[in-house]
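Hey,
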Amino acid sequence: MSTYRETYKQGPFPHRIDPWGEAPRYFQQIHSGIINDILNQIQDTIFDMGYLAGKETSLLITDQGKPDVFVRSRQTTDITKSNWNYSQAASTVMAEPGLELSGDVFPEPDAIHITHRSTGELVTIVEIISPRNKDRSGDMWDYIERRNRLIYGKGVNVVELDLTRSVKRLTQDILAETYAYHIAIYLFDEKPRFIGMDYGEALKRFALPLRHEVVGVDTQLAYDNAYQQAYIANHIEIENHYAESELPFPSLLTDAQIREAKESVTIWREELKRLEASSS
């Protein structure tokens, strides 16, 4: 039964995002798993580099909240701008450097108040953007303001993984409208970077910025592990939600993509039946 179980866990969309799994009730479970997997990927490496990662309340949740994953330096460092190059650093860990975002991505810095923190120097934040966080414009702008306080006021890098399709985006740039999913990397001393990913494409590896150094993160691996550990495909199937009527944001998919998604579910179901029959 192990092959049957593993096929069930992998779901109809191996090594890519399950479009039905983008629904808030399912993505909430994937969200926490991604955070845990990223921590597992980076913890030992960054500890040896002089940093420590931990899990805190997301900035998307509360005004006094802390990020999903924070990275704090073991010692105080100078956060003034330097001549380091993020793209070159990303290449050293075989990660996607992303495209520079042009224009005013944030509200003006002089309109941002500095957030005081008593927990030491904060270096990097990683946020997983949940679908519900993009529903209400007021909450979106509230979060963006808090994010910018950290970047401009504290010299903190912010990385946002937006892994659900939506008509609204926290990244206020035309590039965000042209991709189904993206990773936005806001560097305190360089222009922000953008890594776009099309529907059906495997998620790209990114370089997590620290203080003028980076560590690679395998985004697809983190998603796969989170998805399978929570048995998301099993939940969707037994709740009869693998149906076109339950597909989140179908208007953002072409007719051909919707047909392909439904066919993938059919093929997966047939394979499960075959495996179950062969084991009996």
